[in-house]
Structure formats: C-alpha cells, structure tokens
C-alpha cells in the first residue's frame, strides 16, 4: 500500500467523482477538485459560506455545494470554470439538496419540509412537489434514473408518489399502510420499492412500480422494530436489521423470511473464523535510536501497531449494555452492506460495537467475525472485489477478504483519526477521512 500526504478537510466532505477521474474536498468555504490519480489541483472554487454538503452530478461534469444555513446552493462546472450557478431558496430555507439522475436538475427540500423544488439547469424552469415527509430517507431514485419515489405526509397519513424523471410527471400516487413512514428504497433492478415504518412499529412493505402492495412483513410486535435495511446487488435478497439484534433475509419470490442471523456475545460455532485485533510489540528497539525526536516519532508509530490473531472458539466479544431510558439506544443492527458480488453480507450490532460480522450468503451462515480494539466507525465493500475496508477512529485501515485480513498503519505524523472511508470506483484506491484531514490510500495491483 502507498499513502498520499495529508490534505485539509472540513465536515468529512471528500468524494470521488462517479467516473473516478476527480476527487472533490472542502475546506470551510473552498471547494478543491483534484486529479484522482496524481492529486494535483485541477480547480479551486470559493463559495459564499461554509459548505455543508457536496454531491457530484452523475456524469461528473458538475458539482453541487449546499450551504444550508444560508439557504443557498452553488453549482460549479468542471468543463467551464467561469460558468456558475446560484440557487437561493430565500425565506423558505433549505434542509436538503440532491441531484436528479440526469445531472441537470437539482432537488431542494425547504425548511419544515413544506415542499421540494426541482430546478432545471438547462431550461431554468422550476417545479414543485408538495407535502414531502420529514423522514430519514424520503426520496429514492431507481438505479436506471427513470423514476423517483417521494414519501409524503398529508392529512395525518403517509403516501408515496412516483414521478417520471424525464418530465417530472406524476406516474402513481398511493397511500401506505404505515403508522409513521421512516424510509423508502428501490431494489437495484427498479422493480420493487421497500417502505418501512418507524422503529416503534415493526413493518416493512413492498410495492410494485404501479403502486400495488406485493407483500408486507412483520417479525414481531410491541417492541422496537427496524433499524436498517439493505438490498443485495442482484435484488434477490432484502436484509432487515432490527433492534432485537437480528438480521432477517427476505427472498424476492415470495417475500418471506428465508433465514435470520443472530449476533450473540459468544461465538461458539467451530466453523466460524474469529480474527481478534491485538497490539503488536515494537519490532525496533526505540532506545537505540540516536536522536530524541526520531526516537519519539518512531515510538509513536511503532507502539500502536496491531495485527490479527485467529482465536479458538468459544470466543466472548466485548458487549455493552444500552441505556434504556435514552432515545436512540445503542442496540440492534445499525449497519448492513452486501458485497458487490452478492456473496457476503457485513453487519454491525451496536450492542457489540467492536465487531464486524461477515455472513456467507450462498450458505446462509456466519463466515467470519472481526473483533477490533476500538468501536467500528465505518465499513465499506470494494466496488469490484469481495473485500471489506473498515476504520475504528485511529490511524489504521483494516482490510478483509476471503484470503485473510490485515491491519495497516497509515504512516503520518501527528494525530490522524480515520472515521470514514470511501472506495474509488476501480477498487484500486480509497479516501481515508478524519475530521480535519484526508489522505488517499493506493493499493498495489497485485493486491487488487
């Protein structure tokens, strides 16, 4: 592995472009666009206020910068640096902004979710969508970019409207059998829309493109329900993570449960591989180093190195007891992600914050558990290979593949705490983000 130098960053705003050629990052009110391979600065833009959100257009020709405090969105062009666009929502305010799939329309959600405004960069026309619902995930586009679903709330009831993205005409409008709709998400093939209820009501509903209810699933009642969902890339499976520390897998034929994965505090199955991160003793005797500063630097780098040991089962994992009287308790399956080849599912149970569970989807059983020394901050699958990268808020990046796993120390001076990461579309590099800095990690082609 090779690592770039550290670059300044604000609010974890660092993203590769969809075509993989550029890397955008923000420093306060400045937007920096770099070449993704050389990291040379290609463009430098100055916004009107501190940037709170950025998003690339689907064709990587434009980049959107949202300044929610000011109610302003600025759009920059990579092809024509002199061209600029400013959208001011004025007194209506701004709480969310995103691109449409064609990369030529911007959808702004006003304060109090009064409406969604659709701005066209080509014709300068404006369209409005009323009554959007204030929920975790209220807008969802099909992967082919043809349709958009919007969660709505009117007359104390939940609805979903489906629009055609080419002309923003309403295709279907139907009410949902939810108490308080929490999120919507299309299957990757664009044929089924998953709609799930608030955590107080375990219910997930599956609708067709024409608004027909295909199926509904409810695992239990009178307890905290759904916490996270994830579609498999093939659309064959829907994984539902819930507050009872289980993941339930539904199949795409009958929409019935085919299995459920539990996350016990003790791993007892002898066929499960458990990798445990342990601190590695320094391989160099720092006392022999001549210069004090060199010795201190070496000590800071060497003493915190770690490696993985394979544990003999049974293995007890570090478990925490959630505070029952607080909102959003740290319990249940809060993170889910399928690998790109559909073979593995990675999960994190918030009761056991230091562990990542990797399930074999073909055999429907637990394959590997990684137990870290610190709580998992983020994990993400390589978009091309069955390989998982994760970070735990220290200066290391961890990689797992079916061949094994490795802990890699980022060779940086000072305190570089990685709390987020994102893969390049090629799977050959990834951006490692801390609160104030970022660097790019390049993987050798042999490793890829």
CATH topology of the domain at 1-130, by name, is Methylamine Dehydrogenase, Chain H
Structural class: mainly beta
Q: Helix count?
A: 1
CATH class group of the domain at 1-130: Mainly Beta
Number of strands: 41
What is the averaged pLDDT score?
A: 92
- The backbone outline, from C-alpha atoms, is globular
Architecture (CATH level 2) name of the domain at 1-130 = 7 Propeller
Residue fraction in strands = over 45%
Question: What's the name of the CATH homologous superfamily of the domain at 1-130?
Answer: YVTN repeat-like/Quinoprotein amine dehydrogenase
Largest sheet: 6 strands, mixed
* Major β-sheet strand ordering: 29-28-34-33-32-31
Determine the fraction of residues in helical runs and give it as a percent range: under 10%
Calculate the terminal CA-CA distance, rounded to whole Å. 10 Å
Please mark out the parts with pLDDT under 50 across 5 or more consecutive residues, or reply none.
284-303
Radius of gyration: 23 Å
Protein name: WRP73 protein
Organism: Centropus bengalensis (lesser coucal)
Pfam families: WD40 (PF00400)
InterPro entries: Centrosome-WD_assoc, Quino_amine_DH_bsu, WD40/YVTN_repeat-like_dom_sf, WD40_rpt
